[in-house]
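One record is set out below.
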Amino acid sequence: MSLILGAHHQVQPDPSAVLIKEVRAFVFGDDDEEKSSGGGADCHKQAKGHWIVDSDIANPMSLYEQYRSSRTSWGIDAMGSVIVEIELSNGIVGVGISIGGEAACFIVEKHLRIFVEGQDPSNVELIWDQCFRATLNYGRKGIAIQAISAVDLAIWDALGKLRGLPVYTLLGGKTKEKLPVYATTSRPDYAKTMGFHGAKFPLPFGPANGEDGMRKNIEMVKRWRENVGPDYPLMIDCYMSLTVPYTIELARRCEPYNVKWIEEFLVPDDYDGYKKVKEKVSSTLLTTGEHEYTRYGFRQLLESGCVDVLQPDITWCGGMTEARRIVALASAFDVPIIPHGSSVYSYHLQICFPTCPLAEFLVMSPKADSIVSFFGKLFKDEPLPKDGYVTLTDKPGFGVELNRDELNMVRPFPRGISANRSQT
């Protein structure tokens, strides 16, 4: 016997409620402006010579020699940032971001706005569910979910400002006063000096570089271990570049060097491959999830028991509404969540849940030698780590202000109320 449910009755906003007046989606004026602004929401939108794009970093395209020298050669930065504003009927504006550029703007302005405008911002679950269901035929992962993420984060920001509360309070309050932070960097030695609680560096070579590449990988691991000492946590980011046999051999050769974890070593959809590696490797933790989307993808990882840590990106995985579900789901499997990047958006999530023990900070200075804002010039007041910790203010919403004076934000698909405003 099955339980058959009828259609949900339409939710009618209270006539006296503050409603969502308009959703707007923006990009930077051009590539050069985005790069000079520090990349915005797209950390790979960097000028030539930046460590994150022009170092030896194994990646899915390393197989092809012509794309090996720079990650921008194959378009890792092709999509660029999307910046979403949610304006309420009382004038409050919330901001959310992701990657996706003009394509994401199109999805927001031409489709998602149907389920957003005229709604009560308190109804985050309703709005998210309708956006997700309406995009199933072309979405589920990738750019559609990134567009939903930006909208969702903007709604949470607006809702916090409306209530006069930080988002972490809306989520249930703090479980820790400050967040310990590790660095993703090309220079673990600098990270240790700057006070970070560990350092993750990119693996330089993959299977296409053969035995010589493997040898150079291990030489790098050995060098950084000797440099930072025997106990400082070191992690390796493989950025979807390896195979099952290569990963198993890499882990075996890293055993003398006390590597804390090996990250995202296979393409995201190879769930069976992740499971095979987990069955063979016990000398280091195995992590992934940066390029996974929604609770359904993370459920596959959890049910297969193939990872020790999950790393959703809050600006990609579905926004705050979906991220809190992912955290709850993972907690039932005793799997911690250490989100990928996402700065202030992930901090507000992590500070609320005891299963989020550590935050990531990408060191975005070109030579990885100083702490700068992860989102570049996008916000005036992005919280930065100090002495290895991030603390959050009690400002409402996400507590950051869009840096309008220094940004040339272009609205590719103006319409409706603000049809005449192509820039802000």
Q: What stands out?
A: The radius of gyration is 21 Å. The chain is about 30% helix and 15% strand.
